[in-house]
């Protein structure tokens, strides 16, 4: 039975390292979400995020701007990493339960 326990311990260590990696990668991408506002018949896009209790908005660009397309890619990548992080945390919890019985 110790062989199986060793495998679970190795998996737990791997998952802990993966969580650290995902957290570091997430910090490389912008926080928040893309919001759009209409002003004088034109649509403008902003990065909206929380800073303390306030929601801040930083201008990104208009509909067809390359900045908007790049920002969308970055937000999508961050969301993908966050999903992977959550899955990894769940797997780590399960590995812990297996070890503790």
Helix content: 55-70%
Spatial ordering of strands, largest sheet: 1-2-3
Principal-axes geometry comes out as elongated
Tell me the total number of β-strands: 3
Percent range for β-strand residues: 25-35%
Could you give a short account of the major beta sheet? 3 strands, antiparallel
Low-confidence stretches: none
Protein architecture, described:
This protein is of the alpha+beta class and about 100 residues long. The protein has one domain. It has two helices and three strands, in the order H-E-E-E-H. A three-stranded antiparallel β-sheet has the order 1-2-3, with helices on one face. Strand 2 and strand 3 form a beta hairpin. It is elongated and about 70 Å long.
Protein topology:
Layout: H1 2-26, E1 33-39, E2 42-51, E3 54-62, H2 66-100
Helix pairs in contact: 1-2
Concise structural overview:
This protein has 101 residues and is of the alpha+beta class. The chain has two helices and three strands.
Question: Keywords, please?
Answer:
2 helices, 101 residues, three-stranded antiparallel beta sheet, alpha+beta
């Amino acid at each position: 039975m110790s062989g199986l326990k060793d495998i679970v311990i190795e998996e737990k260590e791997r998952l802990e390292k993966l969580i650290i990696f995902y957290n570091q990668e997430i910090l490389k991408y912008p926080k928040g979400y893309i919001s759009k506002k209409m002003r004088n018949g034109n649509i403008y896009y902003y990065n909206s995020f929380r800073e303390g209790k306030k929601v801040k908005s930083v201008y990104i660009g208009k509909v067809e701007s390359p900045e908007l397309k790049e920002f969308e890619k970055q937000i999508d990548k961050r969301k993908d990493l966050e999903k992977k992080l959550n899955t990894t945390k769940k797997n780590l919890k399960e590995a812990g339960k297996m070890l503790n019985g």
